[in-house]
Amino acid sequence: MSDGNEDKKGFFRRVGAFVARDHRFVFLGTDAFAAFGMWLLMMGYAQGGAPAVDLVAAAICGVWIVASLIPGIYKLTHWAAYEKSSPFVSDRALRPIRILSYVVWLAVVEIMFDVIVLGVVRAWIEATSLTSNPSDFLLSTFYMLDASSGIILHGITVTIELAFFGTIIAFLLALLLVFLRIQKIDRSDNYLLRFFKSLGSGFARFYSTIIRGTPMMVQGLIIYYAGFSVVKSSGLSINETQQVWSFFTSGLVTLSLCSAAYMAEVLRASIEAIDTGQLEAARSLGLTQWQAMRTIVFPQGVRNAMPAISNELIINIKDSSVLSVVGVFDLMYATTSIAGIYFRQMELYVAAALIYLVLTGVASKLLNMISAHMHMQTRNVLSTASDNATVLNEELIAHE
Amino acid sequence: MSSAMDQAAEAQGAATGKDPIIRVEGLRKSFGSLEVLKDINFEVKPGEVVSIIGASGSGKSTLLRCLNLLEEPDAGHVWFHGKDLTEERTNLNELRTHIGMVFQSFNLFANKTVLANCTHAPVLLHKMSKDQAEKVAHEELSRVGMDQFANAGVTQLSGGQKQRVAIARALCMSPEIMLFDEPTSALDPEIVGEVLNVIRELAEAGMTMVIVTHEMEFARGVSDRVIFMDGGVILEEGDPEQMFTHPREARTREFLARYLDE
Questions:
Q1: Which pTM was predicted?
Q2: How many other C-beta atoms lie within 10 A of the C-beta of residue B128?
Q3: What are the tens digits of pLDDT across the range B112-169?
Q4: Minimal Cα distance from A188: which residue of B?
Q5: I need a surface site. Which of B9, B109, B126, B166 has the fewest CB within 10 A?
Q6: Domain range spanning residue A105?
Q7: A149-181 and A331-342 helices cross at what angle (nearest 10)?
Q8: DSSP conformational letter for B215
Q9: Which of A284, A296, A388 is the closest to B109 by Cβ?
């Protein structure tokens, strides 16, 4: 309830209160949205030719804005008595006003759909029918993507293959590395075993230092040229060598070796985080160090590391782009090539960024679904078991 | 060959009845500059229940962990049926299968169900087939009153339930001796009793046991012999009634007074 004193307060204060209070949702909020819809239509059809539906929708927006001025002016002029005397705040009036505001919102959504969604579709159709590269940003992007869709699709496929197989191979390598790394010398080991254990552990440490301390781009170049000369030294011609040791093969090797070092660190951390009591309990039962690690500690560590390990897939989707420098025909290589052909860099790199965003988005969505599914399964098992446990507990108590 | 030797040793032990299962000789252990065990000598005979009491930091847990070499002593010997565990060429893993251990923090395998916790070691170490191991596990779990939970995961159990499963797990290896490392120290006061009852029943069934504990009344009731440790040495050793009513050493009296007042 406003009291008479508010009359005497300043005009700006009154306007501020007007904006902040009951007018802000139905009237002012819808006004802003309606204005946005009209602006969008003007931008979308700068040269005219907007369809009738859009014009009707824009007209609804316009009418709403003008009509909403009436209660606005009324409120500013009848400030003190507004809530008592205004015809716009009675229950009978508020309902239709609200429903009308929904109509305006619908009209704006219609304009958005036509200009943005259908606009993109229309641009795509227009761009694909063109015979030369247009100057408009969107049209040009679509034109180039359409004209070289084969190359782009090939690039996307290679990127997915690299990331997917690279991550799987890296995981297997990481298991091997971490196995070497965590070997501890047991008192029953003979000298040969002691030697191999320290050798393996030292190698894993050395490997991790080298790989994590150098850029993958450099690793990729070294691995490609080293592999090339090794394969070539077996007496093959340059063509044959390129077929055996292709850019893709060397890229996959690089990505797997590099990712394995990071994954091994993640695995090692989560294995070392397992309570030492688990190992002690296993050893106290007579299990060897290796049996205890393999059957008790390892499974728990790997399970805890799964979220970080699956994150490596997303990292690999993005980081494989570095391998385009070596010559791997991935999405980045495809984009750079097309940009070179048309000499239109901005359009294509933005497009490449969006494609990477979609790939990583889909991958992370899939991984979340898989982990949620697994979590659900374990939780189901646990909850049924614990329900049983509670029931049993209650039975026991009742029995006692 | 080693199992044949075992049987021979067992037969000999059974024949005389008084050959110790475990004999400790001149045991020493330091962590850095801190000397935790200073020349410990004692033995455990078959069927005997020995409790080790003493203040925190007196070395009792370390001594217990030296008995199955979870902690490697710096000097001295631990003989199990005449075989020296501290000898490098001893098959420690094989000997450990005869020595059960129960930990303060339960240490149930978190990636296994209650039943699998019990069958894991017997099956892996080829002591039993899977069916046989499960049969034994169900028996041992019933013995500690946990068979209803056989298929539950270990994370849903209460502390007392976990400790009872841990006892069953150790029993599944049919050990000759059980080591208890403060089995009730991590439990809520109201569920300490359920674990102590299980241990008491085991003692009545004739199991040889070494128990490190802070439960004085329990130690007094269940033990054949009590060892009081202080500052890394065995200060006093003897019959529980005598020790609790007429301790010889002033330090023992002081320690017990603090507990018995409570």
A1: 0.75
A2: 19
A3: 999 999 999 999 998 889 999 999 999 999 999 999 999 998 988 999 999 999 999 9
A4: B88
A5: B126
A6: 2-129
A7: 150
A8: -
A9: A296
Are A271 and A382 in the same domain?
yes
Q: Do residues A122 and A241 share a domain? A: no
- By C-alpha distance, the chain B residue nearest A382 is B153
The length of chain A, given as a count of residues: 400
End-to-end CA distance of chain B: 53
Q: Does B151 touch chain A (CB under 8 A)?
A: yes
A100 domain residue, yes or no: yes
Q: How far apart are CA A148 and CA A347, in angstroms?
A: 14
Amino acid present at B154: V
The two beta strands, B49-54 and B233-238, are: unpaired
Contact B95, B81 (CB under 8 A): no
Q: Does A264 map to a domain?
A: yes
Counting other chains too, the contacts that A61-70 makes at CB distance below 8 Å and 24 or more residues apart are A61/A34, A61/A35, A61/A37, A61/A104, A61/A107, A61/A108, A62/A34, A62/A38, A64/A30, A64/A31, A64/A34, A64/A100, A64/A101, A64/A104, A65/A31, A65/A34, A65/A35, A68/A27, A68/A28, A68/A30, A68/A31
Q: Which of B111, B125, B151 sits opposite A300 (nearest CB)?
A: B111
Bridge partners of B101? B179
Residue B88 and residue A386: Cβ atoms within 8 Å?
A: no
The reply to whether A389 touches chain B by the CB within 8 Å rule is yes
Please check whether residues A40 and A165 belong to one and the same domain. no
Q: What CATH number has the domain bearing residue A298?
A: 1.10.3720.10
Identify residue B225 by its one-letter amino acid code.
Answer: R
Q: At what angle do helices B159-171 and B130-143 cross, to 10 degrees?
A: 130
Output the six-digit token pair for A362: 């889909």
A212 and A359 share a domain? Answer: yes
A104 and A236: one domain? no
Nearest CB neighbour to B152, from listed A277, A278, A389: A389
- A284: Cβ–Cβ under 8 A, 6 or more apart, which residues? B68, B70, B96, B99, B100, B101, B103, B170
pLDDT in tens, A227-268: 999 998 888 888 888 888 999 999 999 999 999 999 999 999
- CB < 8 Å to A283, chain B: 70, 93, 96
Say whether the ipTM exceeds 0.85.
yes
Do A94 and A169 have their domain in common? no
CB A278 within 8 A of CB B109: yes
Does some domain include residue A142?
no
| Nearest C-alpha in B relative to A379 | B153
Q: Which tokens sit at A281? A: 């309990």
A280 at B interface, C-beta within 8 A: yes
